[in-house]
Amino acid sequence: MKSLLFFLRRTILILTSALLTPVALAQGEAGEGAGEHQLGAGDSIDIRVFQEPELDSAKVPVSKEGRVSIQLAGEVEVIGLTPTLAARAIESKLKQGYLVHPKVTVTISGYAQRRFTVLGAVNKPGAFTFPAGQNLTVLEAIGMAGGYNKQANPSKIILKRAGGGEPIKLDGKKLGEGAPMNLKAGDVITVGESVF
Length: 196
Hints:
The chain is α+β, with helices and mostly antiparallel strands. The chain is about 25% helix and about 30% strand. The chain contains 3 helices and 10 strands. Strands 7-6-10-8-9 form a 5-stranded mixed sheet, with helices on one face. The chain has a 3-stranded antiparallel sheet with strand order 2-1-5, with helices on one face. Strands 3-4 form a two-stranded antiparallel sheet. The radius of gyration is 22 Å and the shape is elongated. It starts with a helix and ends with a strand. Residues about 15-30 have low confidence and may be disordered.
């Protein structure tokens, strides 16, 4: 009897996913995860597996290493992924010998406090917190610091990434053109001064 229920359950799941695949593909073509928050250490997520309530997990923390621990699947790396892409990564891990065609939904249940610093020729230099669940560009961060002061030279902006590496030289006058430069937690922006 149990094997018959298991077989029926799996058959219904497969048929349902076959019907939903065109919808999922259409959504994916429209820019999968565009504009969504990228998961980081300290965030927490809720994980739902369609028709597998025993695998559902609430408030799963993202570790410092950027991983979450999932029943049956073990550790899954999600740092830098949007909730949509994190769901795909978990689905992929569950397919490896556990479920035939898992459908996973990931939602953010809590945001880590992500901070950045703006120094130099701005009106209110200091450390700031990212707005919950939002990405932030260099220009938006300078705006949060009160904008440029009278001595500022917007052509001389230095961005130091939290992970180290070479400082990035930016021209604030050209930052509005092209793709936006998004900040990461721990970044430091320094606005240079004009020489009079």
